[in-house]
Amino acid sequence: MNEKDAQFLDTLIKSLVDSPDDVKINRTVDEMGVLLTLDVNPADMGKIIGKEGNTAKAIRTLLRIVGMKNNSRVNLKINEPAGAAPRPMKATKSVDEAMADLNL
């Protein structure tokens, strides 16, 4: 069994977080490919996700490259830790405010 993808993810994530001992990666293989499930300390969640999800997207891109090199499809699932702060809802504008912004 080739576990280079999980080793790569482990090294990458542990270098990003403040609590590397709390990093847990579960690797499962099925007909769809490889699924890596990531659990981290709740305080480190922001570092893994990044602004607007950019860090998570970059990690997924790197895993896709590692997967192609090893002839497998690799997917990443980041588990939201229990007790994590809920994501704030974006404030939405009313129709009138949106129309005023368009300067029509």
Account of the 3D structure:
There is one protein chain. The chain is an alpha+beta fold and 104 residues long. It has helices spanning 4-16, 45-49, 54-69, 95-102, and strands at residues 24-30, 33-39, 74-78. Helices cover 40% and strands 18% of the residues. Strands 1-2-3 form a three-stranded mixed sheet. Strand 1 and strand 2 form a beta hairpin. The radius of gyration is 18 Å and the shape is elongated. The N and C termini lie far apart (61 Å).
Number of domains as seen in the coordinates:
1
Cα shape: elongated
Q: What is the count of β-strands?
A: 3
By secondary-structure content and strand pairing, the structural class works out as: alpha+beta
Helices and strands in order, then pairings?
Blueprint: H1 4-16, E1 24-30, E2 33-39, H2 45-49, H3 54-69, E3 74-78, H4 95-102
Parallel strand pairs: 2-3
Antiparallel strand pairs: 1-2
Helix pairs in contact: 1-3
Write a concise keyword list for the protein shown above:
alpha+beta, GMP Synthetase, Chain A, domain 3, three-stranded mixed sheet, 4 helices, 3 strands, 18% strand, elongated, cytoplasm, cell wall biogenesis/degradation
In brief:
This protein has 104 residues and is an alpha+beta fold.
